[in-house]
User: Which sequence fits this backbone?
């Protein structure tokens, strides 16, 4: 009741009823989504990057609807409430690389511009190859199914070293912040707009979320479409120089190995086979992703040389 | 609900206002958007991001300094006052159907309102000889190069074995046009000299595109200015020159009417002598005539010969009105009548 009252009062809406308690409301301006925030700094980040990305009208993030006083949130005492448009369904991917490229390019640009200001609200995963190695040695003593995982270790080590070299060479280059829970399914469609549902999570410092998104894209749309997507992102945010090398470093980092180890540690034997299978798939897809990206970068370099 | 192409095309823009149109009509340069939440005017412009930001700032600034006779902008649900879509920029305003007007004519209302804006935004600039020199030289060079172009066209026309009616009309007025241009340049020099001797220069917020189409009446009959897309900080003369150049084309124009409109303006902000020189210089330079020539040279297929001739003659006639009006602007005001009731006992 309090939430509905606050929404009605602060957004000057005539009609507000629950569509899905604490998540969605029906209003005279359509269905809106509610988000509750406890961390003001995190909220500020989410307001800013959404606003930056929403400067164009073709590919936008779910910006905070302003209150009648023009504020992006309602102060509820110990927490803040924000109201967003709610768009059901998903936006098509293959064939719409231009629009997705605009969205991702703008997200990267916003993340780079805001990275200094919001460096305190980020989260970052650290990769420990030694920890992976130790865990796999221990697990392989108990289970025989980990052959493919064990076999991948030399290449994983090589890739990681290469990634670290690349990162070291570009250590002076700032990394963009990126919404951590980035997935293709977050993109909806309304009035021919790519409407992106952002998360309420802490942003990640670097290219890991983008790597995940590119892998998803590759799995669903294939290498040809992925290359088109990279070209379209590049029109709005250059991936040809240092930022491209930093993305390459992230693609080289064998995150799939660490993910697999985390899952193996926590699960029963019954699930191990399926995890190993999933690891093998991810490993192969990441190889294709790496191949596609380096090919794309080479192609760009050749064009410059020509 | 209409499902025309327009509704589909404007969807991404109107979505930002949570407007779901039942009908969209094209009225002049705006779209009339009829929805359950009311009727609105959607304007499409070519403003870039920086220009759109300045435009929004101007509207807010006018409101802050207490000027409310402007057609307001509605913010989107995200708090933006303009919407970028592709390479176009849009903004939304209330629809002014127009009601009964108070006593003033449209021209009187425009000059009154612009006088108020100029008064509220008037700023005595720190005198900078470089800025004045630059403005003077820039305009002088532009005018001289335009004169050269026109001289070239006159020479080309004279070489023709058979002159067209337009060329004939142009040539018969050519010397007169050049005299007008020389007079305008002389007045510009007067302004330049006066600026240097008085060491002063005033700026105001200029509307930039004053026109009778940019004034609407609310349903209470109050005049509201709109379209501040070309607003700029400049001499007040900039707006006045645009206004009077258009006003001389009105059927009821007389120099006395011009004088009366200028007096209405000067109730808010009396012009300095050098600003009067600048106004005379701006409006007496025969650019509208040169523009007719440009149109003839570059878009000859657009009108017939007779239409071109008619257009040029109409503008020559307007320039005559301007010349008379300029004499009036430069005429010093009559001395104040002596008060016959002054008590002279104490002298």
Assistant:
């Amino acid at each position: 009741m309090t939430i509905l009252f606050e929404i009605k009062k602060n957004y000057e809406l005539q009609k507000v009823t629950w569509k899905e308690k604490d998540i969605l409301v029906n209003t005279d301006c359509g269905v809106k989504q509610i988000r509750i925030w406890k961390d003001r700094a995190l909220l500020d980040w989410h307001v800013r990057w959404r606003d930056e990305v929403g400067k164009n009208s073709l590919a936008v993030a779910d910006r905070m609807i302003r209150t009648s006083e023009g504020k992006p949130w309602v102060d509820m005492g110990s927490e803040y409430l924000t109201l967003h448009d709610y768009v059901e369904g998903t936006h098509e991917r293959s064939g719409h690389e231009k629009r997705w490229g605009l969205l991702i390019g703008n997200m990267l640009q916003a993340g780079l511009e805001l990275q200094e200001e919001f460096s305190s609200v980020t989260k970052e995963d650290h990769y420990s190859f030694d920890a992976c190695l130790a865990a796999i040695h221990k697990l392989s003593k108990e289970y025989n199914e980990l052959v493919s995982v064990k076999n991948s270790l030399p290449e994983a080590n090589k890739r990681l070293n290469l990634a670290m070299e690349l990162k070291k060479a570009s250590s002076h280059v700032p990394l963009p912040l990126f919404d951590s829970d980035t997935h293709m399914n977050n993109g909806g469609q309304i009035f021919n707009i790519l409407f992106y549902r952002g998360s309420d999570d802490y942003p990640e410092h670097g290219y890991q979320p983008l790597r995940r998104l590119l892998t998803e894209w590759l799995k669903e749309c294939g290498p040809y479409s992925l290359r088109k997507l990279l070209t379209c992102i590049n029109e709005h945010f250059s991936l040809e120089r240092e930022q491209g090398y930093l993305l390459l470093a992230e693609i080289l980092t064998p995150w799939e190995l660490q993910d697999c180890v985390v899952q193996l540690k926590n699960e029963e034997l019954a699930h191990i086979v399926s995890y190993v299978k999933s690891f093998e798939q991810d490993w192969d897809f990441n190889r294709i992703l790496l191949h596609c990206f380096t090919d794309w970068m080479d192609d760009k370099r050749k064009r410059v040389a020509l | 609900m209409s499902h025309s192409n327009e509704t589909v095309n404007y969807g991404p823009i109107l979505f930002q206002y949570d407007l779901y149109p039942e009908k969209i009509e094209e009225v002049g340069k705006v779209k009339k958007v009829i929805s359950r939440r009311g009727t609105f005017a959607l304007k499409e412009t070519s403003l870039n991001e920086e220009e759109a930001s300045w435009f929004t700032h101007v509207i807010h600034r006018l409101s802050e300094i207490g000027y409310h006779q402007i057609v307001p902008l509605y913010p989107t649900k995200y708090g933006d006052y303009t919407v970028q879509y592709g390479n176009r920029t849009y903004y939304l305003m209330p629809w002014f159907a127009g009601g009964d007007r108070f006593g003033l004519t449209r021209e009187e209302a425009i000059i009154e309102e612009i006088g108020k804006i100029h008064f509220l935004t008037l700023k005595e600039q720190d005198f900078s000889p470089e800025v004045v020199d630059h403005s003077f030289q820039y305009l002088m060079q532009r005018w001289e190069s335009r004169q050269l172009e026109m001289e070239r066209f006159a020479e080309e026309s004279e070489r023709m074995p058979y002159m067209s009616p337009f060329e004939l009309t142009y040539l018969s007025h050519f010397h007169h046009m050049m005299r007008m241009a020389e007079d305008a340049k002389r007045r510009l020099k007067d302004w330049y000299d006066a600026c240097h001797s008085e060491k002063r220069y005033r700026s105001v917020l200029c509307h930039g595109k004053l026109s009778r189409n940019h004034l609407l009446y609310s349903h209470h009959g109050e005049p509201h200015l709109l379209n501040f897309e070309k607003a700029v900080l400049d001499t007040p003369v900039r707006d006045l020159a645009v206004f009077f150049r258009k006003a001389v084309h009105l059927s009821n124009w007389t120099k006395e009417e011009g004088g009366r409109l200028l007096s209405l303006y000067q109730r808010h902000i009396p012009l300095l002598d050098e600003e009067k020189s600048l106004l005379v210089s701006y409006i007496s330079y025969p650019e509208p005539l040169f523009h007719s020539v440009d149109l003839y040279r570059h878009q000859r297929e657009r009108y017939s010969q007779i239409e071109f001739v008619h257009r040029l003659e109409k503008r020559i006639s307007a320039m005559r009105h301007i010349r008379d009006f300029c004499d009036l602007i430069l005429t010093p005001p009559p001395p104040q009548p002596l008060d016959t009731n002054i008590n002279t006992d104490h002298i």
Summary: Residues 46 and 86 of chain B are 10 Å apart (CA to CA).
